[in-house]
């Protein structure tokens, strides 16, 4: 229990269990967001770090906009990278 005394008025501030729970909730919420960012970054690095051709059978697709043959898995990784990057930016 914390007490503060002023000259004219006696002001008693006590850290009640309710205030402690509120502080714990704020910390827990921020910590959960932080852990979510870390896991999203690790997931993103895992996806980006894998080279195309590992595991999954690759299909080549033709993009109609510029007629470039492109690995569909690479395209999916880039879309996912952009999506996760946008999510991480919104959490800040």
Structure, briefly:
This is Somatoliberin. This protein has 92 residues and is mostly helical.
Comma- or semicolon-separated keywords:
mainly alpha; 58% helix; two-stranded antiparallel ribbon; 4 strands; disordered N terminus; 92 residues
What does this structure look like?
By secondary structure, the chain is mainly alpha-helical. The chain has one domain. The protein is built from 2 helices and 4 strands. A two-stranded antiparallel sheet has the order 1-2. It has a two-stranded antiparallel ribbon with strand order 3-4. Helix 1 (17-49) runs antiparallel to helix 2. It starts with a strand and ends with a helix. Residues 1-12 and 52-63 have low confidence and may be disordered. InterPro entries: Glucagon_GIP_secretin_VIP (IPR000532), VIP/GHRH-like (IPR046963). Residues 22-44 form the Glucagon / GIP / secretin / VIP family domain.
Number of strands: 4
Helix content: 55-70%
What structural class results from the helix and strand content? mainly alpha
How many alpha or pi helices? Answer: 2
Uncertain stretches: 1-12, 52-63
Cα distance spanning the termini: 35 Å
Q: Percent of residues in beta strands?
A: 5-15%
Q: Order of strands side by side in the largest beta sheet?
A: 1-2
What's the structural blueprint in terms of helices and strands?
Elements: E1 4-5, E2 10-11, H1 17-49, E3 60-62, E4 69-71, H2 72-91
Antiparallel strand pairs: 1-2, 3-4
Subcellular location: Secreted
Keywords: Secreted
Domain Glucagon / GIP / secretin / VIP family: 22-44
